Amino acid sequence: IAAGNSVVLKLQWSGRSSATSRLILDRLPRYLPSDAPLKMLGPPRVDGASPPNRRSSSSPDDTFVQQQRRAADIAATQAILQCHFDLIFFTGSPSVGKIVATAAAKHLTPCVLELGGKNPVFVDSTNLHFAAKRIIWGRMLNAGQ
Q1: Residues contacting 105, CB < 8 A, separation 6+
Q2: How many helices and strands in the chain, by DSSP H and E?
Q3: Taking the mean position of all CA atoms in its chain, how far away is CA 66?
Q4: Which of 12, 57, 64, 130 is most buried, taking the most CB atoms under 10 A from its CB?
Q5: What pTM did the predictor assign?
Q6: What's the first-to-final CA gap in the chain, in angstroms?
């Protein structure tokens, strides 16, 4: 974006990262000029569903809605991968990375895959500031990788 490249940012709306996706969708435009070459894709619409950043109560209805949202998310990803891009940068799971790499190969599109990694942290401390410093230190030890 900083170099003037156009960007399509497809956020994840099912699973663990929907709250983070909502935050990015809400906040990122605040920090970019209005003419920035960026297109962000919001959550898929699911009839009768609550917003995707609400925690699930694991009722059968919520499970059904999550499945519908996941199916819509997959369909959106497949539609995006039919387009031709100059470069694809993907962050996510190895299984989806294989799909992205296969789609990129059809157009001979260079592809960068950042696969894997979740870093869950459980903080059992009354000194949140100290705990946050240690978590950030550990996370940035190898340049955030």
Answers
A1: 111
A2: 4, 4
A3: 16
A4: 12
A5: 0.61
A6: 21
